Amino acid sequence: MRALDLPVPDVKRVLDSEAALEDVVAERLREVGTRLTALRWREAALQLLHDCPPAERAGRLRLVGSITTPPDTTALARFWRLWLPPRLPARLRSTIVDRSVPQPPADPTPQQVLAFTRLDALVRDALPGKPSAQPEVHRPGNGRPAALYEGLVEAFDLAAPSLRDGLAPGDSEALDRFVAAHADSQGVRDTPAFRRGLRHRLAAEPRIDRYWQLAAEFQSPSEPTPGACDMWLRTALARHLQATKT
Question: Each residue of 73-99: pLDDT tens digit?
Fold first, then answer.
C-alpha cells in the first residue's frame, strides 16, 4: 500500500478495517485523476507558449497564468447568474447555468487551453449587470422572463438534432416553440405581425457571440451550444419571413 503512495493514516484505516480498502483506493484514484488532468493542462499550456510567435508569448503567458489547473469554471457560472434576469425559478436558473457553462476537457489541446483562458478573461472583464448589456426582457417590468427561458430551453432541445445533422435552418417545431417562447413572455399570440416584429427586436438586442464562439472551441462538436441553437433559430425565423413575404 505504501508502494502505491497511500498515506500512513490511510494504511492504518485499511489495517483496522479491511472493508475500508475499497474506499481508500477509490479516493486515491480520484486524486490521481485530478493530478493527471492538471498535468495535461500544464503540458498543453506549455506547448501553447512554446509554439506561439515570440511577440504573442507575453500576452498568452498572462492568460495562462490567470487560471488554475485543472481549470475552475466558477467565474463562468457567476457570469451567467449575474447576466440572467432576477427571480427566475431556481430549477430553471440551474438548468440554464449548467447548459451554458462548458466543462473543460480532461486532455486539452493547446488551442483549447487558449480558448478557455480567453473565455475566462472575457467573463471576468464583462459587466453583465449593466442594463444596456442585457436583452430588454431581463429588465424589471418587461415581460415574463421565466416563460421566455422555459420555452427557449425546449426550443434549443428541439433544434439541437438539426444542428448535429447539419440541416439548414427552416420551418420546424423548434422554430414554432422559439417564437412561442417570446410571445408567451410578452403575453401575446404568435402571429405573422409578431414574427416580423420579433425579428427586428432580436436583431437589436445585445449579444454574447464571443462567449459562444470561445465555448464552442473546447466543447464537443456533437453538442451544439445554446448560442449555436439560438443563431440557427434566428436564421430560421428570417428565412420563414422571407418565404412568406407578400
Answer: 999 999 998 888 888 999 999 999 999
Region of 224 please: left (phi>0), alpha (psi -120 to 50) or beta.
Answer: beta
Rounded Cα distance, 221 and 148, in Å: 26
Q: How many helices (H) and strands (E) does the chain have?
A: 11, 0
What is the identity of the amino acid at 42? R
CA dist., res. 92 & res. 203, Å (int): 25
What's the pTM? 0.85
Where does residue 60 rank: exposed (0-12), middle (13-18), buried (19+ CB within 10 A)? buried
The contacts of residue 87 (CB under 8 Å, 6+ apart) are 145, 146
What whole-number distance in Å separates Cα of residue 133 and Cα of residue 151?
A: 22
Rounded-to-integer distance, Cα 75 and Cα 123, Å: 7
In single-letter form, the type of residue at position 222 comes to: S
